[in-house]
Amino acid sequence: MSRPIIAILRGLHPTEAADVGQALVDAGIDQIEVPLNSPEPLKSIGILAEKFGDTALIGAGTVLTADQVDAVAEVGGKLIVSPNCDTDVIQRTVALNMQSWPGVYTPTEAFAALKAGATGLKLFPGVMAGPTGLAAMRPVLPEGAKVYAVGGAGPDNFDVWINAGADGFGIGSALFKPGFSVAEISERARGIVAAYNEAAG
Q1: To which CATH superfamily is domain 5-200 assigned?
Q2: How far is Cα 90 from Cα 47, in angstroms, rounded to an integer?
Q3: What pTM does this model have?
Q4: Where are the domains of the chain?
Q5: Residues near 134 by Cβ (< 8 Å), separated by ≥ 6?
Q6: Could you give the 3-state DSSP secondary structure of residue 104?
Q7: Residue 1 pLDDT
Q8: pLDDT digits (tens, 9 = 90+) for 30-62
Q9: What's the CA gap between 120 and 104, in Å, rounded?
Q10: Closest CA to 121 of 111, 129, 131
Q11: What is the pLDDT of residue 2?
Q12: Residues carrying an active site annotation
């Protein structure tokens, strides 16, 4: 069972990519992004894509340019997540048959992203908008538009966000920080999956 959770592995090193990826997939998290401001991110993405590309959605976060989209595609990534709404990035991602999750904060950004072909929307920073912000925006968004809350959303409040209209989540520091052991990441991942399962009913 695939859950609408994207693991954000900011600071991941290529040497740990395979083991961390295995821990996440084993726990039930099969969507993984390595932010491009991590050490040698394309190398890590390539390792993850080669090992888990058939069973998990692997890609990059903090993608800011169309050239970066190309670079991620070249190493086998199929997921592009951005902190902002850049239609050039979205359109290039869609043209390469990759998933596009741009960051949005306002209805204007949300509609621009969807018009450009975004797969779904990353509400960011979620902690600033809050569940009430999402709930206020939800009624004007097209039916079927997917919204993932990122930043301020996690196992302690999955239920509140889901009730506000969140379809899924991006989870970063609650799941992974540089220096965490694989065992700790595995434990955190299993806890997050269990919390999501309970919140989603």
Answers
A1: Aldolase class I (3.20.20.70)
A2: 24
A3: 0.97
A4: 5-200
A5: 123, 126, 147, 149, 161, 164, 165, 166
A6: strand
A7: 65
A8: 999 999 999 999 999 999 999 999 999 999 999
A9: 10
A10: 111
A11: 86
A12: 33, 122
Compute the Cα dihedral for 115, 5, 9, 94 and give only its sign: negative
- Tell me the two tokens of residue 44: 């890590």
Distance of CA 154 to the CA centre of its chain: 13
Q: How confident is the model over 150-195, as pLDDT tens digits?
A: 999 999 999 999 999 999 999 999 999 999 999 999 999 999 999 9
Token code pair at residue 99: 């998933």
One-letter amino acid of 110: A
Q: Counting runs of H as helices and runs of E as strands, what totals does the chain give?
A: 8, 9
Backbone angles phi, psi at 162, to 5 degrees: -65, -40
CB 9 within 8 A of CB 176: yes
Q: What size, in residues, is the chain?
A: 201
Exposed, middle or buried by CB within 10 Å (0-12, 13-18, 19+), for 190? middle
- Identity of the residue numbered 53: G
